[in-house]
Amino acid sequence: MAEWIGIGKRARRCYGFDEIALAPGKITVNPEEVDTSWEFNRKKFAVPILAAAMDGVVGTKFAVEMSRLGGIAVLNLDGVQTRYDNPEEVLDEISKADPQTATNLIQKVYTTPIKEKLVPKRVEQIKKAKGFAAVSCIPQNALRFSKLAEEAGADCFVVQSTVTTARHIATKYTPLDLKKFCKQTKVPVIIGNCVTYDVTLELLETGCAGILVGVGPGAACTTRGVLGIGVPQVTATIDCAAARDFYYQKTGKYVPIITDGGMSRGGDVCKAFACGADSVMIGSAFARSKESPGKGFHWGMATSHGNLPRGTRIKVGVTGSLEQILFGPAAVDDGSQNLMGALATSMAALGAKDIKEMHFVEIIIAPSIQTEGKVFQASQRVGMGK
User: How is the chain split into domains, by residue range?
Assistant: First the structure.
């Protein structure tokens, strides 16, 4: 698979969403009869989409609304929701900052220490409104925060960092033992992020309930530019799905993988499922909802890094309600609304009756898929030309 790129050095070709297309097969299905649900920890969710644990995307009210609509929203326990008693004031300040000072402001905002009392408070706010409480933090805070979140009634705990491995080496602090953590945590644990077969396989051995796939593809993330690391999401998803399938054959335990980032339109979501995803995690598309706390702005989780920010604040605008983004009716022409309608229609056209059958549809390499016949859209900057 790899090609020589110089003396003694080979590299393999990897693919992103814009380079592939899904080829229709021999049968089609009524879109109203496909099953777009997914199962997590023996519970079925109507919407196979998670809202990313980013401060401009998920607040407590957003999490409740996402739950009502059948999906999961993950609240960031390392962010403004646990640093400030009234995060609305800070979020409003970030949204009003000019582009030149936004990153410095975000860095300053995140220097305020986390108030541990706010961890259970935010979980309780979601549970009181009958929402599904999924929360996230970095590995360094996982032991402390997981206990606080559990006691408050959290339904799921996500341990997330830019790159996660089962074997983290450190001498200045004690690394989190993921296997021990998953065993002692009373709620299902999702671990991320990774992009390769071998790492996925080792993470699955920890006993986690889900794996997040993706390094640097987010709309507000600059990790790939700052650090030069990452694998395009098509290849990453396929490789990690192969590890999931091997683990299932070996153990009989099926652990879902969740493609995280790089999807802003319905077509990207459909392609992720065709590559083997059981669910997807989205940030920027949801940051455009009326319910998102970012007020039309979106920034990466690592933007606030004190010395090496790996993200930027971007303006995504507010285009509609969360329900509109998930179920329509679409008021925009770029595929960023009615994501569930797009998924159901794509599955029907491909002859896939459920998400598992989407894993077997034909994928073709098609670099012209975004531009073929779209000259007027491109020149007028509408539809696929935006």
Answer: 2-385
Token look-up 């073709």 returns: 364
Measure the CA–CA gap between 321 and 196, rounded to whole angstroms: 35
Q: Give alpha helix (H) positions in 129-196.
A: 139-151, 178-184
Query: DSSP 3-state assignment of 211?
Result: strand
Quick check: helix, strand or coil at residue 345? helix
Residue type, 295: K
- Altogether, the residues listed in the chain come to a count of 386
Its pTM surpasses 0.90: yes
Under 8 Å CB-to-CB from 310, ≥6 apart: which residues?
162, 221, 222, 223, 226, 227, 300, 302, 303
Superfamily of domain 2-385: Aldolase class I (3.20.20.70)
Tell me the per-residue pLDDT of 189-213, one tens digit each, with 9 for 90 and over: 999 999 999 999 999 999 999 999 9
Question: Contact, 290 vs 308, CB < 8 A?
Answer: no
Q: How many CB atoms lie within 10 A of CB 6?
A: 7
